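Worked example

This section walks through a single chain of length 108. The input is the sequence exactly as stored; nothing has been trimmed or padded.
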Amino acid sequence: MKTLELINTPEAQLVPQLRQMKIKELERHADKLLAKFGADYAPILAAVTRAIPDLNKEVGDVFGRLQTLIGEQVSCDDSAESRELLRRVAVIMMLIIQRQFQKIHEGR
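Given that input, the structure is written out below as tokens.
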């Protein structure tokens, strides 16, 4: 799947495709989406990873807080398109972190 397809695919069709992607492909998409905001992938992934323990302690919309955290790291406007891209970046980053966590604990 190309990143442009990822942006334009409806959520109901996108979720099963994201679940099938390998970490490297997810990272490539996250990198390209963040580049649209003029941001680098690695520092944002590090910030999200460091924030997860604090996010787990919070009550309420944890995913919304994650989107806010990513939004604070990138330069974007408050348009619907930017919010949708941030949402997709947040989902992809959570999948990456989840897969990396599983990989570590499964001993691969």
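What to look for: The mean pLDDT is 90.
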